[in-house]
Amino acid sequence: MQPPNPQPITLSKNPLSGREPGIEKGVLLAVSGGPDSTAMAHAMVHSPVLNKSSKWVLAHINHGLRQKESEADLEFVADLAEKLGKETGKQVLFESKSLAPGEIPETGLEAHARNIRYSWLDQTAHSLGISWVFTGHTRSDQAETLIMRMLRGAGWKGMRGIQAERKLGLTTGVFRPLLNFSRDQVLAYCQHYGLSFREDSSNRNNTFLRNRIRNHLLPSLSAEFGGNLEEALASLSRMAGIFYPREVELAGASLRALEKPRAGKQIVLDLEELKRINSRDFSAAMIALWTREGWPLDAIPRKRWEKLTSQITKSGYKEDLPGGIRLEVFSRTAVLTPA
């Protein structure tokens, strides 16, 4: 049986063409050793349209979570870098970092691991004078992310999902060249080119929400209702990307209607305007305010926002919000004071 055509995982043009800084200084490839990042590394290093890159760097972080399995992943990526260099005659380097067991807190493990990983990728790229970090996220990852965010009640911002390109650090950006391709296409590519890859045993651990979505929910939905669920979710992501800027614009207008001149560090809101605004526009305005001020938006769960919406117009109400934000409601104003 012939494998599916792997042709889609190629580049007909430089996706970063015309951007400054470009890829001439090199590209850092975040490679775990799994099929997605292995296929990405192979496709990118072999790509004739990215031959302006002066060097390729396969970067791997050992989170120290799976002991010998994690050590074998590191060795695999190091060998892959050497192999790709020999196959292409290009400069392919290897960078790695190993975390000590227990260095990542068990509470919020996935989020902590992701933050540590991206911080290290940024630092490594910057130290090598590289502007772009490529990751192997696929359309299948996008579908899982969108389902997760639906379950958590995300708005248009969250429903944009994984962005194909975003800023990482002061001098670096992240690009995801496989985001339009499914995991099945990735596996077909690996089969076609005879690429071996590592299997992460933690992907079978259904303690994690993403794994339950990947291993159970998405296959069940596809089997029950048919159709291309991944493509439908990708379409939703694109739609959210269209509506989100408009939402930001409207939220900014609502915030301007509510705000009075600042009193030093204090944010002062007009109580009469607060009484007139509907709950949806109020929530959007507060999210815009929290974002602008750099306050910890993620620390406030939805129920806390709902309580704030109903209480902020009551004179005499006081509340201490996450991040050290103090809310006090007076006869004509509501005042937010950061710590």
Q: How is the secondary structure organized here?
A:
Blueprint: E1 27-30, H1 35-46, E2 56-62, H2 68-88, E3 92-98, H3 109-127, E4 132-134, H4 139-151, E5 165-167, E6 173-175, H5 183-193, H6 209-225, H7 229-258, E7 259-263, E8 266-270, H8 271-276, H9 279-293, H10 302-311, E9 318-321, E10 325-329, E11 333-337
Parallel strand pairs: 1-2, 1-4, 2-3, 4-6
Antiparallel strand pairs: 5-6, 7-8, 8-11, 9-10, 10-11
Q: Characteristics of this structure?
A:
339 residues; alpha/beta; Rossmann fold; Uridine Diphospho-n-acetylenolpyruvylglucosamine Reductase, domain 3; 2 domains; six-stranded mixed sheet; five-stranded antiparallel sheet; 45% helix; disordered N terminus
